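Readers of this paper often ask what the protein records in our data store actually look like. Nothing more is needed to write down the fold, since each code stands for a local backbone conformation. Below, we set out a record of this kind in full and without editing:
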Amino acid sequence: MRSLYIFPILHKVNELGSIGPLYKKIFIKEKGLTEWKRRQAFIGHIWDRIERKITRMRFNYQKLRIYQDGLSTEVDIDIMLKEMLEKGSRNYILINKMIIRGARLMGTENSALLLEEYKCLKNNNKSPFLDEKNLLSKRDEFIAQRINATLNSDGVGILFIGANHNVMKFLPNDIKATTINNIRTAPRIFGVASA
């Protein structure tokens, strides 16, 4: 049976690409600079916990597939990894450590759906904290299909996914999915959903 470990995450602004400045602007406008700083510190704490947990899990990295939300199936993974490492992304620093040990990073998302989300935020000036459920569901379904298509019959995967996603409901029955380090309650601390 295939296994998938799902790590709900919160993104720092340097991991959001071109949407990052818009996200930060809207957050500060809605919640203030103090809350922004608190949230960024909390996200750092979450990544500390995730890294400790993964270290204790002792994966066979040669069989490990890593799936990352926001990572399109159409991008050059090596270029994206290099860019995110240069930005100091905790998420990608951890991914890189696993790649060095033999894990494989997989393109995970449909770029058209990511672009649609960006346009929705930019053009309608909607808050990124109020996800369009239909768009999020489409993304989750695509991610589940991608995992199903690329995770070997005896394979193990890790999925780093924003805390508002629900990929599990789209996964086939032969993938045993376990949510680790569940932070779904974290957004309530800040009165907002995660990015």
